[in-house]
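ping. complex inputs:
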Amino acid sequence: MKSTLYVVATPIGNLQDITLRALDILRTVDVIAAEDTRNTTHLLNHFAIGAKLMAVHEHNEHHAAARLIEMLQSGKSVALVSDAGTPAVSDPGAHLVARVREAGLRVVPIPGANAAISAFSAAGITAPHFLFYGFLPHSSSGRKRELAALKDLSHTLVFYESPHRILASIEDLCEVLGGGRTVTIARELTKLFETIHTCTLEIALDWLKADQNRQKGEFVLLVSGAEISEAVGVGEEAQRTLQILLAAMPLKQAVKLAAEISGAKKNALYELALQLNAVGDKPDGAENGNGQLPCRT
Ligand code: SAM
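pong. complex structure:
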């Protein structure tokens, strides 16, 4: 307990989502370093925990780190919390954690709510890998630039978005990644108006515009990755040929023949064959090619 920094996850909406261990830690530490002391006071009051708060946010994190390290070195224990969810995940805290670890002091995570993982767990995505991206830039040009760099990845892409930019971001996602990708829009998770809707990017904008309420609140967007053949630069015809041959013969032979038949590059076909085999090995395989459910709420 002494000289330890606890990184404590707090709820992302429903206060009942706090863990027993988090409550224990918040009750017993000497100081709670909070992103916004008013928000954390609300949480602490709900659980009848007396406040011993210190503000640690993006504007004072460097200065506050030095003070907190002194406290830790004098034997005190500190809990770090953000406004919602897990600190240091698209939230302040990483700098403080790095400094405390550099100082040779103990950092202990107290796991709990996180918006991205909550959305992922309820989306029904069977694709094996995802990439957590967090917030895209606020400007459309910046967003499009960063999306262009993600375009060829076959991983499901996970973004955070605010109500101010949800329409513009969906528009840019559609333009850069293509309207055929599947998106799960997870809104207001664990709250009264929780919505989890899956559709293609092409129709997501109309779905959001059809009801102003759908544009309100906090969002996680889960966008299917590039089709494997897209990612390695192999055309549809060559992929089909390769798939037929893979079912009938060993991988190397199938790649060689597919290259001769289609004229596609052997290296790319080999990469694609490995990935196709890996997907085929999954018990639940990505039936629709991108591992997401068809359109539904
Ligand atoms: N540290 C948090 C976590 O562990 O998820 C994320 C904090 S980040 C500053 C806030 C963003 O997370 C919001 O803009 C939204 O994209 C997402 N978010 C937070 N709570 C959410 C919720 N209840 N439903 C959907 N998205 C949420």
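Confidence is low (pLDDT under 50) at residues 282-288.
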